[in-house]
Specification:
Layout (H helix, E strand, L loop, with lengths): L4 H25 L1 H18 L7 E5 L5 H10 L4 E6 L2 H13 L5 E5 L12 E7 L8 H11 E12 L6 H13 L21 H8 L3 E9 L2 E3 L2 H11 L1 H7 L4 H15 L3 E2 L2 E4 L2 E8 L1
Parallel strand pairs: 1-2, 1-4, 2-3, 4-5
Antiparallel strand pairs: 5-10, 6-10, 7-9, 8-9
The chain binds S-adenosylmethionine (SAM).
The site of S-adenosylmethionine has 20 residues, from helix 1 and helix 3.
Length: 287
């Protein structure tokens, strides 16, 4: 039996929600490591989106809210931030983290980024950190974000560059797929980790969604850890898509997959610790 496109899309969304519901506490637990990894790129993303005191900002695929807190600090008490995500579990952590940090200017909105269900012309700025590439239809998400912005508002997204610039992600994906008995997948297939890393693709999508003055900046953001085992602990706790691929395997088969991955990631061990190359694309557009 073949599924129609609408059923296929709904099942994909259900899986995404379940994967991130399951990985929510793991992603949140590793916030200090994520902050060390993405801190400079996050600062750049927030500045490129023109976030400033008093503005209202939409944070798409906000996760556990690490960048939401930076946005809340930047807009200050007269501004507001709406953190949106498809996973209720991870969004609950964003709400808790904002409350624990004392921010009263953060609200949450549970929604698929492709169907945001927000008012048109409502936000001065928007960001999306490491979320857009998971959308099977990123143009639909970009169109929704464009609609939610006021004229003159800016949106900045952060996604992974292509597989050649992100060898650790390539190792994780190809090795997990092989151990799961799945055929190799086109890394640029929509919804994949590096799917928006195809040269020129993200700029073209921004333009198709209606954004002008579109520009992409490439940023190196190596992931530094004391050793391979520390990086693997992060991946095993928090990387929803990889955990999903390995989930059908029994315990010994899964252990073999992780051992294979660890052996390949050891190539990035240096005298000063483990440093996994990682390249990000920051894309900005104006409504
Ligand atoms: C890698 S995490 C990034 C979280 C956060 N932005 C950060 O950088 O810490 C990816 C996030 O994208 C969310 N996500 C995936 N697909 C989504 C969709 N279709 N709509 C909204 N959020 C989605 C996941 O639930 C998850 O929270």
């Amino acid at each position: 039996m073949t599924l129609d496109a609408a059923t296929e899309a709904r099942l994909h969304k259900d899986r995404t929600r379940q994967d991130w519901d399951a990985a929510a506490t793991g992603w949140d637990k590793h916030t200090p490591a994520i902050r060390a990894w993405l801190g400079p790129a996050t600062e750049a993303m927030i500045s490129m989106a023109g976030v400033a005191p008093g503005l209202s900002v939409l944070d798409v695929a906000a996760g556990a809210g690490d960048q939401t807190l930076d946005l809340a600090a930047r807009v200050g008490p007269r501004g507001r931030v709406v953190a949106s995500d498809i996973s209720a579990n991870i969004l609950a952590l964003a709400a808790r983290n904002a409350a624990d940090a004392g921010y009263r200017n953060v609200a949450t909105h549970l929604a698929d980024a492709e169907q945001l269900d927000l008012d048109a012309n409502a936000f001065d700025a928007a960001v999306c950190r490491l979320g857009l590439m998971f959308l099977p239809d990123p143009l639909a998400g970009l169109t929704q974000i464009h609609r939610s912005l006021k004229p003159g508002g800016r949106f900045c997204s952060m996604v992974f560059a292509g597989p050649d610039q992100n060898p650790c992600l390539r190792i994780l994906m190809t090795t997990a797929m092989r151990h799961a008995g799945l055929p190799p997948r086109d890394p640029f297939q929509p919804g994949g980790l590096v799917s928006l890393g195809r040269p020129g693709l993200i700029d073209a999508l921004f333009q198709q969604a209606g954004f002008s003055a579109v520009a992409t900046t490439r940023m190196d953001a190596p992931f530094r850890m004391p050793g391979t085992a520390h990086y693997l602990e992060f991946i095993r706790d928090a990387a929803g898509p990889i955990l999903h691929i390995l989930s059908p395997l029994d315990a010994p088969a899964r252990a073999a997959a992780w051992a294979d991955i660890a052996g390949q990631l050891d190539a990035f061990q240096t005298a000063d610790g483990w440093a996994g190359p990682n390249t990000l694309l920051l894309t900005v557009g104006l409504k």
